Every structure is written in structure tokens, then in C-alpha cells.
Amino acid sequence: NAGVTQTPKFRVLKTGQSMTLLCAQDMNHEYMYWYRQDPGMGLRLIHYSVGEGTTAKGEVPDGYNVSRLKKQNFLLGLESAAPSQTSVYFCASSPTEDKQYFGPGTRLTVL
Amino acid sequence: SQQGEEDPQALSIQEGENATMNCSYKTSINNLQWYRQNSGRGLVHLILIRSNEREKHSGRLRVTLDTSKKSSSLLITASRAADTASYFCATEGGSARQLTFGSGTQLTVLP
Fold it and tell me: How far is A100 from chain B, CA to nearest CA, in Å?
């Protein structure tokens, strides 16, 4: 199993551009999450999903949208990127147990 | 806002010594988890302790939980250079297995 994969690994955007980050998991997990991690800080939850076709807001949802059209994929979109969205983005998934499995991260820079 | 606060922010020890990290949180929880993050990588789950447990062991890891003080500690015994990483506590207290992360402890184990 590949576990949780994220695409792309790195991206540089200009202010106002849009992009989509893709998260895929092959473990048949129900729950999926998007976090951001800023320097010297822990992870903050952006959005999450409790199953195919569902999404919900986390702690810092503004400026982001998500979709979960297929159980194995969770997409994070930035409609109009801002420098404040420069961060490392992590996707995670979870089965019925409590622990989460994390992807390797996407490093995004917004100029 | 982050639920957990970790102490110390950074810790440097010699190989073979024990490392202790502490985590404090603010609200009631279902469980508390510890994760490790190697530089430039995603988070890896280490251990979970439920709110009705006081102590748990896994290999060289020992976790304690004091719900009356809203605090937890992670002890790594006989540390190795490979233990060098950031360690995060995360609390789960709501629905959908949402985790709230602390700001982390950077552990450096010197050979």
C-alpha cells in the first residue's frame, strides 16, 4: 500500500492564482483531513471529511475549499492565493480507530 | 487556537539518556496522541492514551496522562540519534476524530 500520497510536493504561486492540491489514500479510510503547518507551530485543521460526498470546516477554513467526490481522494483548492497561505500542507486519513495517517506534505509558496 | 502547549520547545540530550516532553491542554478530551515528525516529512503516530487511562507503554515510549491537571508527558528511554525529530501532542475531544495539535518539542539526540 502507498498509504497517503499528496500531489504536488512543491508549488510556487503568484498572488491571485488558483490551484488544487490532491490527496489520495489507498487504505479505504472514511475520514480525511487537510492541515496546514506554519514555521514553529503545530498543525491546524483546515477542512475535513467524514465520508464520500461530505466536507466540513475546521479551525482555519477561510480562503480554502474542498471536495470529496471519491472516497479515496480529498482535494484542497485555493481560489485566489494570498501570501498568508504560504505554508506546508498535510493531508491525513483515519479509519474507525483514532489515529491518523499522514501524507508527506506539499510545500506551497505564494509570492 | 491550539489546544496543547508543549514544554520544552527544544531539548538536546546525549545518546543513551532519557528524554521527557510535557503537554498541557485546556478542555476535556477523549484521548491524547503523540506524533513524531522528522525534518521535512509528514507526521507519524507514536502512541495513543485514552482519557480513562493513566499510563501506557510502547517499546521505549512511556506516556502518562493526568486529566485532573490536563497534562501528559512522553518519556523516551535510552534515546538514539535516530530519535532526533519534532514531537507533537494532539488531543481528540470532538466529533469526526478531529485532532488539535500542540506546537511541538524539537528533540536533538547527540551521538
Answer: 7
**Beta strand B105-110 pairing with B85-92:** antiparallel
Using a CB-CB cut-off of 8 Å, the residues of chain A touching B103 are 40-42
Tens digits of per-residue pLDDT, A44-86? 999 999 999 999 999 999 999 999 999 999 999 999 999 999 9
Looking at the complex, does the CB of residue B19 fall below 8 Å from at least one CB of chain A? no
pLDDT over 60 at B33, yes or no: yes
Q: Where are the beta strands (DSSP E) in B15-101?
A: 19-24, 31-37, 43-50, 55-58, 61-66, 71-76, 85-92, 99-101
Determine whether the interchain pair B42/A103 forms a contact, defined as Cβ–Cβ distance below 8 Å: yes
A16 to chain B, closest Cα gap in Å: 27
Tell me the pLDDT tens digit for each residue of B75-110: 999 999 999 999 999 998 766 678 999 999 999 999
